[in-house]
Write a structure and sequence with these properties.
It is a single chain. Helices cover 40% and strands 14% of the residues. It has helices at residues 2-14, 69-79, 90-102, 115-130, 155-159, 170-173, 184-193, 219-230, 249-254, 280-283, 302-317, 320-343, 368-372, 376-388, 409-426, and strands spanning 36-40, 43-46, 51-54, 108-112, 134-138, 176-179, 198-203, 233-237, 260-263, 274-278, 348-352, 355-359, 391-392, 401-402. The structure holds pyridoxal-5'-phosphate. Residues 114-116, 119, 142-144, 204, 209, 237, 239-240, 264, 274 line the site of pyridoxal-5'-phosphate.
Length: 428
């Protein structure tokens, strides 16, 4: 704790809240954050030398675990040739070829530097291609911090109490229409009220920034058919689900086609990368082919591409990653559920693929309203006890636990044992 606390005091003098991204400040759990010095496989170490089993996994990118030798080597080799050229390179072609082969319904890719940028650009493309201005998003879904997406956003925006950020112009927010996740009627109503004006519906196919809430049967299919009927585009924000639920992401996992798909997190292997992708016809609206402008000095950066390409190749060649992480998450979720039952704790454990989240409520959570019923004080207490016992979780309720390929049976069993103790203590 000592060195973390010292660093945090210094950090608060020079970084707003002591951090470069709000959730890291641990405000939702009311304690100072741990500063991290290194990570390897399923483990992470803080600057005081304490080791944890890590379920944050850098918020998703580290699907193979930390410091994977294949990715590390690719980065080391790339670095030897220079860090950035601002010119086309071979790895950019190779990663786009690989992505279009692994993911259904995409023919062209544009690389950017973050998930936020991917979404921002995808929305511009949807508006440019349809000539319409309004967009539909879902309350509690997080799509990065661009102006028009910071309306009723999930994740740390919500934990920090500002799902609607200051500084977003009213004129921008007015074009973002708000629907309810897993509620098709709420979507159709918005189309009815705004005939011919909606460019796109953007959705996290699995809502993973309100905890984890999966789509109910028919929800994604229903969005597809509403969009087709209304001439709007369907955007899957797969910044979390892409290359995680399956090689082809949520489109493959749920068998529903999206028009534009956004990526981030996993495709950078831990480096800052995002991308948006779609059919050739759509993507050729983007500059220099078409009138939708979008550019980036460091886009397709050779070191970042090397990391991403190495990770995606590994995933392509090792389909057992997907069965293993899903089985690991099954084991974890079942173990946590049994622990909750044994302790008589009113806790729901949601799981989709390798994504898991507990909610401290006796009721099933299938919507944003349901997620909000979770007892946040209980989450904070649970978080603190888990951290103390060497389990590193997201320091806020409205996030996911990520099971990686590096988590062993033993790691999962140890985690379940700790959860069992902690749930018992919490229900005393
Ligand atoms: C993390 C996330 C983003 C934003 O990505 P950044 O790289 O943090 O800008 C967008 N959409 C979803 C679904 C995310 O989980």
């Amino acid at each position: 704790m000592e060195r973390s606390s010292e660093l945090f005091e210094r950090a608060k003098q020079v970084l707003p809240g002591g951090v470069n991204s709000p959730v890291r400040a641990y405000r939702a759990v009311g304690m100072p954050p741990r500063f991290i010095s290194k990570a390897d496989g399923a483990y992470i170490w803080d600057v005081d030398g304490k080791q944890y089993i890590d379920y944050v996994c850098s918020w998703g990118p580290m699907i193979l675990g930390h410091n994977h030798p294949v990715i590390r080597q690719a980065v080391q080799e790339a670095v030897m040739n220079g860090l950035s050229f601002g010119a086309p390179t071979q790895p950019e072609v190779e990663i786009a070829e690989l992505m279009t082969r692994m993911v259904p319904n995409i023919e062209m890719v544009r690389m950017v530097n973050s998930g936020t940028e991917a979404v921002m650009s995808a929305l511009r493309l949807a508006r440019g291609a349809t000539g319409r201005e309004k967009i539909i998003k879902f309350e509690g879904c997080y799509h990065g911090h661009s102006d028009c997406m910071l309306v009723k956003a999930g994740s740390s925006a919500m934990a920090g109490g500002c799902p609607d950020s200051a500084g977003v112009p009213a004129g921008t927010a007015k074009d973002t229409l708000m629907a309810q996740y897993n509620d098709l009627d709420s979507v159709q109503r918005l189309f009815d009220e705004n005939p011919g004006q909606v460019a796109c519906v953007i959705v996290e196919p699995v809502a993973a920034n309100m905890g984890v809430v999966g789509p109910q049967p028919g929800f994604l299919e229903g969005l597809r058919s509403i969009c087709d009927k209304e001439g709007a585009l369907l955007i899957f924000d797969e910044v979390i689900t892409g290359f995680r639920l399956a090689k082809g992401g949520a489109q493959e996992y749920f068998g529903v086609r999206a028009d534009i798909v956004t990526f981030g997190k996993i495709i950078g292997g831990g480096m800052p990368v995002g991308a948006y992708a779609g059919s050739r016809e759509l993507m050729e609206h983007v500059a220099p082919c078409g009138p939708v402008y979008q550019a980036g000095t460091l886009a397709g950066n050779p070191v970042a591409m090397a990391a991403g390409l190495a990770q995606l190749r590994y995933l392509d060649e090792h389909p057992e990653v997907y069965t293993t992480i899903a089985a690991g998450a099954d084991k974890l979720a079942n173990g946590m559920r049994q622990a909750a039952q044994a302790a008589g704790a009113g806790v729901q454990i949601n799981q989709v693929g390798s994504l898991v989240a507990p909610f401290f409520t006796p009721d099933t959570v299938a919507s944003f309203a349901g997620a909000k019923r979770s007892d946040l004080k209980k989450y904070a207490a649970y978080f603190a006890k888990m951290l103390e016992r060497g389990i590193y979780l997201a320091p806020a309720q409205f996030e996911a636990m990520f099971v990686s390929f590096a988590h062993t049976e033993e790691d999962l069993e140890k985690t379940i044992a700790v959860v069992k103790d902690v749930f018992e203590e919490l229900s005393r």
